[in-house]
Amino acid sequence: MRARTSSFTSGTATSPIGAFEDWCLSRIAGTLQGAQIRVQLWDGRGVALSERMPVATVVVRDRGTLVRLLYRTDLEFGEAYAAGRLDVQGDLVAALDSINRAVGFRPFQRRRARAGRIPLSSSRHNVHTHYDLGNAFYRLWLDEQMLYTCAYFETPDATLETAQRAKMDHVCRKLRLRPGEHVVEAGCGWGALALHMARYYGVTVRAFNISANQLEYARAHAQAQGLSDRVTFVDGDYRAIDERADAFVSVGMLEHVGRHNYTDLGAVIDRVIDPVHGRGLLHFIGRNAPLKLSAWIDRHVFPGAYPPSLGEVLPGVLESRWLSVTDVENLRLHYALTLKHWLARFEDQAGTVREMFDEAFVRTWRLYLAGSQAAFQCGDMQLFQVTFGRPLDSTQPWTRRDLYEAVDAAV
Amino acid sequence: MRARTSSFTSGTATSPIGAFEDWCLSRIAGTLQGAQIRVQLWDGRGVALSERMPVATVVVRDRGTLVRLLYRTDLEFGEAYAAGRLDVQGDLVAALDSINRAVGFRPFQRRRARAGRIPLSSSRHNVHTHYDLGNAFYRLWLDEQMLYTCAYFETPDATLETAQRAKMDHVCRKLRLRPGEHVVEAGCGWGALALHMARYYGVTVRAFNISANQLEYARAHAQAQGLSDRVTFVDGDYRAIDERADAFVSVGMLEHVGRHNYTDLGAVIDRVIDPVHGRGLLHFIGRNAPLKLSAWIDRHVFPGAYPPSLGEVLPGVLESRWLSVTDVENLRLHYALTLKHWLARFEDQAGTVREMFDEAFVRTWRLYLAGSQAAFQCGDMQLFQVTFGRPLDSTQPWTRRDLYEAVDAAV
What we know:
2 copies of one chain form a homodimer. The first copy, chain A, is α/β, with parallel strands linked by helices. The first copy, chain A, has 2 domains: 19-103, Nonspecific Lipid-transfer Protein, Chain A (2-Layer Sandwich), CATH 3.30.1050; 120-405, 3-Layer(aba) Sandwich (Rossmann fold), CATH 3.40.50. Chain A has 16 helices and 11 strands. In chain A, the strands form 2 sheets. Chain A has a 7-stranded mixed beta sheet with strand order 7-6-5-8-9-11-10, with helices on one face. The longest helix of chain A has 19 residues, at 359-377. The interface between A and B is large, with 52 and 51 residues. Strand 10 (324-330) of chain A pairs antiparallel with strand 10 (324-330) of chain B.
């Protein structure tokens, strides 16, 4: 349990409202025109931004917040929400979804900073900031196997547990794993996929991670499941991988690699997978076009993360090594539903999270989960699964039909 | 029927062989080391390039050809083969496949020339050169519906006719066509897909083409099938399309668009498809990485064609318009099999083709079909189907399972 300094304030009326505040309000209303929300100031006055019934009321609790929303919108919205200087009364996900749709997407917005390569030391810092919040925290609201990536819902009413197992099977089937093969996994989280592959597909796995908490957890589970001889969890960055395997898999790591390291990742994949029948799968959060990540998420939730477009990923990671794309699937709506499950479980455990951290932490994570759900729902974010192989490999099945026929038989 | 000037020679021994010819032969042997072929000169002497049993003997019939093979390899091989100055005795496809594998792929080889935009006038010239050879010629060896693009074989033993119908259904299912919708097709060949969509999926279609022969054929078939009120064949380039549709489809046209027109194509798609539920599919020959097309194919078969990598296509055509990639499938082996069928039918009709044109034409097309089959077989060429949609559209099915379940029911 780590304590965080709380900047939470209860948020009360701070000052009388005049022409300046009205002007600020009208500027915000102009930018968000059409969003199905009402924006309200600390004295109760406000405006509806659409003629339709508002899904929520955004309450701005003081003048400083109102002003800062004009020039550091994204950062201020998140920080003020976390601190309680801004509140959303009503349906938070629907409000964020509606704001996204009103603002529209901004393709080819200029990206600033972070153009440099991400060195290993900052990779470690970035990963620790997010993934080392403590296994106890994530256990509160993830599924029983601790999968912190998009699930695969055969039908929308599947449980999260079922959908996470289905995701692992979907990945294994796309990789066409055969008993006795060797798999390298880059960025293995709490180890569920590595253990699943070994147990149900008869392969050996070396899984790499740089989060100490996750590695400790994964090793304990390998031990408990009697899989320690077939699954090795290695403390190392993807750049440290130097061994041959039949398949390479990475689920939810590419977002943390950094655009300028894509050719390095391609070189790693090229030296790992078998020169004739080697294949791999990259599962990652992406965008429809290059766009900078929210400044608030970058600063307060996922430092250094970048969800790339396919056009950014493919040249460096695969084309530079003459690897052949065999399949791309977009599971955007599956991630929206995964996040809906996480958010509901998180809310159920909000009291415990508050005790472990503080109210600002609870509100930061609530906004992050709700905002992510909204982003996948409205098409601002994508979830790509890219399957690839060596150009000479002609052993893949004739169609993709087997991915769907094998569902009931595999496990 | 158009006559072509024949440059075919019967190919006989032309000159005595000395140290210079031996040096040329050793240079060629060095470049192709490992290919499962024997290279033989006009007097019968030769070398095997691999220790394995040769699949064919490449016979070089004169000194000029031997020398030119050293410095304009690709062009000379094709031109000499067409003219009979070079022959391949044995399995032509296997020989070309083996040569491809021996040479290996050359990613990021410098591309020369043709960096400019392809203006409408040269698009017309390029298209006429290939597609206006006469419907009678193509009818000799294509399937009964005259589809001149990759088929989709549910199983490898399906007939070409069945596989071409399955391809059209696969495309229609990926587009999720609903009765009453309107579809725009860019580059419609002899019109089979447009008619299929209208007849079996209940949509109206406007299909664009700039090949006069193909348009005439397509219109006659629409008339004969009583579909003229629902399918319109328009004499126009993709740039002329200016209407709204629910879906945009293009099968085998992107190869002729030219890399520097991709953002123009993106703009056309963006103004065509519905702003909320619009979607589309691009079916095209591609590469694993940017690479110049064979100089021989560019000069003698497909002027102006360029098979792009996904990394070249996506930024201009889709990302520039914030369109969302929903599915990519690679049907490389299906194209190898399609070409195998075409080549077999072409050989059956070689006598008729010779009467329509001449021997050099027969040999040019034999080499083109065999070389293409080899290129898809060995992973030098890819066939991509890219499905895309508007970012806000959330009406797609939950998984791709329906693409495979619906197969028997659709038609």
